[in-house]
Amino acid sequence: MNRERYQRQIILAGFGEEAQQRLNRAKVLVIGAGGLGCPALQYLVAAGVGSIGIADHDIVELSNLQRQVLYGLADLGELKVNAAAKQLQHMNPEVELVLHPTAINKKNILQTLKNYDIIFDGTDNFESRYLINDACVLLKKPLVFAAVSGFEGQLAVFNVLDKKGIITNYRDLFPIQPEAKEIPNCAENGIIGVIPGIIGTMAAGEIIKLITGIGETLSNKLLHYNMLNQGQYQINISPSSAYKPIKSEIDLMKKDYKIHNNGYLEIDVEEMTKLSEHDSTLIVDVRERHEFPKLNTNIYKQAPMSEFDDFIQSNISQRTIILLCQHGIRSIAAAELLHQKYGESKKIYSLKGGISKWRNHFLTT
């Protein structure tokens, strides 16, 4: 350890050499190398956390650069974990970086999380949040949670005993997983770039406190921050009587984490690929004709939303219909329209996250 690098924090009253050694020995997993993950990664690496895992399967896009300042134009099209590691290694080569360039799911989450001391959830969807929470409860891992929307952000620490001997998790705060129409989306509703920077940096602070034992963490508390008036407040979280804990890996595998909608279901690219093997499946691209990347029209039928009224009037013979777009937002609207026409007579799906999330799959199809 290069002591000079960390001198400014080592000399802090109440911190010292022992706290720095704890940081150097710690293993932290950051899930999501996006708006929240980027600032958290930068400050954890700078602080000297010994080993940091980065889990993300997305690539860098131009729309990311407004808030994900770890990346630049030269990183466009590159996997986020690779682009992040390149910058972070240059920032502090003493830190070990472990890359997980795959989507976190029920099959791999326990194996991925088990080797880390603390988990940071910087994801942007409820399926991942509930899954990560349940896995952390099962493995007894401290979980730092963050979320942002518009001009506001939230931060909490779960699975850590407070001074009163109370321990809570994400399901104590939100016992019931929301439905699709209740979910805000940054791609649709917008986000000011500094908000994930502020909240992600705060999350790094909570992680540092958990590792070193300094200060008081947000265990069993939810911090709410509003940039427009610099307002902050905290609410206390109590154990919920509606919460039913996950007690085994079997329970986790049986749990349904997908967002169920009115008559259709969001699926990932693996499920889409399996369904596409059947002749009874129709895959429809609802993006406009000028959008990229262009898809093989022998595999994907093009029916832009601006022309969807005409398409929906046609007779669709296939039993299964999968809709996709750039970010998985317009495809949901299209799925709802199709369900209004066909009801339960057809299986209707929307590709979650759209082509943007699964870009590598479509570039090699």
From TrEMBL:
The keyword Hydrolase is annotated on this UniProt entry: no
Alphabetical list of SUPFAM superfamilies matching this protein: Activating enzymes of the ubiquitin-like proteins
Spans through the membrane: none
Boundaries of every Rhodanese domain copy: 277-363
Alphabetized UniProt keyword annotations: Nucleotidyltransferase, Transferase
Keyword Magnesium: no
Pfam families per the UniProt record, alphabetical: Rhodanese (PF00581), ThiF (PF00899)
Listed GO MF terms: nucleotidyltransferase activity
Name of this protein: ThiF family adenylyltransferase
Protein source organism: Pedobacter jamesrossensis
Native organism taxonomy: Bacteria, Pseudomonadati, Bacteroidota, Sphingobacteriia, Sphingobacteriales
